[in-house]
Amino acid sequence: MSAMSTTSATPDFAPALPHGELQPVFPGVHLVTGTMKTVLMGAHWHFSRNMTVISSGRELTLVNTVRLDDAGLAALDALGTVTNIVRLGALHGQDDAFYKHRHPKATYWATAGVPPAPGIEADRPLVDDGAAPLPDASVFLFRQTKLPEAILHLGREGGILVACDALQNWLAPDAFFSDESRAMMTQMGFFTPANIGPAWRQFNEPQGGDFERLMALDFRHVLPGHGSPLKDSAREAFGERFAQVFAS
Fold first, then answer.
1. Is residue 1 in a domain?
2. What spatial distance separates the first Cα and last Cα of the chain, rounded to whole Å?
3. pTM of this prediction?
4. Of 33, 46, 188, 189, which has the fewest beta carbons less than 10 angstroms from its beta carbon?
5. Does residue 49 contact residue 71 with C-beta atoms inside 8 Å?
């Protein structure tokens, strides 16, 4: 079935917010940066977020969805057909229902135990070492956090971690930030390479054991839900950060 026209979307879907273009990161892996607006911990946030698009032949897997405008959707359609929609984190998911409506045959995966996203229920759960949306992928689930969070491990290019909020690599605020969020998040230490998400860490109180398990995976690269891709040196950079945060 071909993708539905965007005119079929109902007013209940969050609108398409400003975003960039789909950019190739690796063969068969693209990333697009867009806008997030939310209220969290009593504050208004306006910042950037990433969607990763993974190709397996002409089948596409969307991770950390960002609703695209008509031109962006046309570029997405040119890559193939959306067959999987993946929600890794509890604080994401507002655009999942839009893509499921547009691609009703796609399988919607969500981390086990995560509160449902608006207007959509999971078709398949993401569980630790359980079934994954792609044949060359595996699922890593944090076991010691207040809210569920998963990371997708791709067995490509020496190992790629596709993360949501737990692993971030914001080097500086970009064009998708409001002035208020830029100032607030600078003060909170968001703009740190190879970082554990500050707000995610504050709320979820993660424990070092999960990060020891994560470091047992083979990977060279991280594609975060927020910030820039970190290529080649990701394992070393994040390993140093984990050691700093969880030093006994």
1. no
2. 55
3. 0.92
4. 189
5. no
Beta bridge partners of 222: 161, 230
Cα–Cα distance measured from residue 114 to residue 9, given in angstroms and rounded to the nearest whole number: 25
- pLDDT tens digits along 45-65: 889 999 999 999 999 999 999
Asked, for residue 80, whether it belongs to a domain, the answer is yes
Our CA angle for 200, 133, 67, nearest 5°, is 60
Assign residue 74 a region (left: φ > 0; alpha: ψ between -120 and 50; beta: otherwise).
alpha
Spatial neighbors of 142 by CB under 8 A, at least 6 apart, are: 148, 149, 150, 166, 204, 206, 210
- Confidence bin at 7 (pLDDT 50/70/90): very low
- The packing angle between helices 208-215 and 234-245, to 10°, is 160
52 domain residue, yes or no: yes
Length of the chain: 248
Q: Does 225 reside within a domain?
A: yes
Write the CATH number for 33. 3.60.15.10
DSSP 41: T
Number of domains making up the chain: 1
- Assign 102 to helix, strand or coil: helix
The SS3 call for residue 11 is coil
C-alpha distances in Å from residue 72, one per residue of 103, 207, 226? 15, 38, 19
Provide the residue range defining the domain that includes 226: 6-245
